[in-house]
Amino acid sequence: MLVAAGALAAGGALTACSSNSSASNTTTAPPPVTVHLATVVMDGGMVNHSGWPMYQPSDMTVPKGATVDMTIYSYDTGTAPLPANMAIYTKAAGVTDLTEGGQPVTTVAASDVAHTFTVPQLGINVPFGVAPTAAANSEQKPLVVTFTFTASKSGTFTWKCMAPCGSGSDGMGGPMATMGYMEGTLTVA
Ligand SMILES: [Cu+2]
To answer: Which of 50, 55, 95, 183 is the most buried (most CB within 10 A)?
Structure first.
């Protein structure tokens, strides 16, 4: 009501309305689309599969050309430090406005990394740390990771975690080598 009254007062009611979403007779390009995407990282205990942290969902689809506002809610409290030869994955890449726990982030110290969300073919890398320590007798809260990217290339791309959070001597086995756990697909269509 306030908006309508203001627009009328300004003598611009029709202009204000047509700028919202209805078709314009002077433009043929579709309006930019923003979509929201969310996934949750659970530790193995939460999915009854000890030692097998999991992204859920692990297969995601976004429209081509969309601006994707993505949120990762990570409940994992354990680190998986990146080794020196993987140091590149400590730096955020291919995304803007990365925040973790409400703070702007560009790099996560290798020793603090819990997981990454990495889409090699799209140049996207998002490292993040552990979930906040829960007070006694209170439920675990997630680390909230937010960022934005543009899905400009169509296809089905494999995303993966680059932090050695899995099994085996190098931490790259088990969930790190299994689709639906520490890897999955991002489809741009
Ligand atoms: Cu991981």
So the answer is: 55
